[in-house]
Task: structure prediction
Amino acid sequence: MVGILNISTNRPIPFEDREVQLLQAIGNVIGVALENAQLFEDSERLVRELEATTEQLSAKNRELDSFVYTVSHDLKAPLISLEGMAALLLDEYAGKLDEGAQHYLKRLMASSKQMETLIIDLLTLSRIGREGRAAEAVSLNQVVDDLILEWGEIIRAKKIRVTRHELPTLWGVRTQIQQVMTNLLSNAVKYLGDPPDPAIEIGAKDGDGKMFECYVQDNGIGIDPKYHEKIFETFQRLKEIETEGTGVGLAIVKKIVEGAGGRIWVESAKGEGATFRFTWPKGQTEVKP
Ligand code: ADP
Result:
């Protein structure tokens, strides 16, 4: 019940049926209007609460990013000194150290190199969105061509057939777009395995009008659908083949793409290659793929 409508009359005769019906109808309309007003108030309060929670969450995320940044940054200095000392030991005391000692020293250096890579990746992850760099028109064709040129040697050595279709110009921070393509392409190369005809394809299409949809496809080892979400989380590696990596690459890609207002996902099955697709808002550019 939302209220009581009290109607009285000073006529001697009672209300007629059609008057009662009319009053009931009026009562119903008033009831619905009151309920609507209540619902509207409730939904406005919910929106306000949601906005406040989102803001709190963003603030917590910023805090976490800055914490990760500080920790990674501070870890770098002692690590570099550790690496330097181990290198010095190997260099200057090589004659005095037996084979076993040299082997342990080399392993120590390899582990600290791996830790350095991890720290650099974590720094990159925590810096996204805080670089203060301005967005600009970035030709994806150019970005991908530069990468193909950079990896010419490994592409030729592994006999990979690379197809780069016509790609759009994206509106975004250049270093971020370069990072997205670097990570996706290097994964495509890393996780190719040993197919008879290794191939990587990079392409794009017009998404839903407001978005471009770009993809990087390979015919490598593929990913079991049960890991399709997991691989985008920090430190998640499937270790199906022995390759170097920290498990941060796809987390970086996801943070950049989502920060730009896009979405990323993978289409793949184990042993059947993988296609990573991401959308990117057209923003200020209207260049068609
Ligand atoms: P990393 O390559 O350093 O391990 P990433 O975050 O880039 O970390 O990738 C996470 C995991 O996702 C990888 O360890 C790998 O198991 C899987 N993966 C990524 N890209 C591919 C791909 N193109 N084909 C198959 N598996 C992939």
Remarks:
- The longest strand covers residues 199-206.
- The CA atoms of residues 163 and 201 lie 5 Å apart.
